[in-house]
From TrEMBL:
The keyword RNA-binding does not apply. SUPFAM superfamilies: (Phosphotyrosine protein) phosphatases II. Residues 107-168 form the Tyrosine specific protein phosphatases domain. CDD domains: DSP (cd14498). Signal peptide: none annotated. Keywords: Plasmid. The lineage of its organism: Bacteria, Pseudomonadati, Pseudomonadota, Alphaproteobacteria, Hyphomicrobiales. This is Dual specificity protein phosphatase family protein. InterPro entries: Prot-tyrosine_phosphatase-like (IPR029021), Tyr_Pase_dom (IPR000387). The keyword Cytoplasm does not apply. PROSITE patterns: TYR_PHOSPHATASE_2.
Amino acid sequence: MDLASPRYNRPKLSRIVENVAPYGVDIFISGMEGASDVALLRENGISTVVNCAVNLDFNYVTEPAVEANQSQIGHGAGAIRYYKLGLIDGPGNPETMMLAGYYLLQGAFSQILPERPSYPRRERGNVLVNCRGGRSRSVTLVALFLHHAMPEMFPTLDIALDHVRTRRQLRPDEWFEAPKPMLIASARKASEWISRIDAETGGGKLA
């Protein structure tokens, strides 16, 4: 049985925390199947997707400015606001990539787009973080984010990790590799940096 399969004892989407403070929206995790189901995303009020996987991409374009052809890749406005962080599910990531992912996810929650035609997806709904299976890269990043965004509820990274694993319905017998240990180690290092940056800057959070 393939434990990495998104079909293995997990829903397509998992709501991890409701009403993430101070943003007032929910955070979800999924694998590729949930992130690619636009109807399901809309049913759950998800307006924003943060894709953690370097080996997985999505085409959400619904209003192409240029149609795809043999010489040019199509591009244009999409049904979903889409952010990409290209993490490897294992060794090979620079330590700073997890730190970058934290601030990317913070931006996905707090960024306020201008009211101009070139920014058609301005709604601020729920946020989905995904990777291929929704069990390692996305779990690590969401745990790191929750630990720092909601420290009263998640005072340590380990408490945040256990909460995310449980809400994502990861089996206890796969926790040793879900998330991958080197990703957790990277999150611990990123957490130290975030604490130092917050102490020096006051956090820089936007409601």
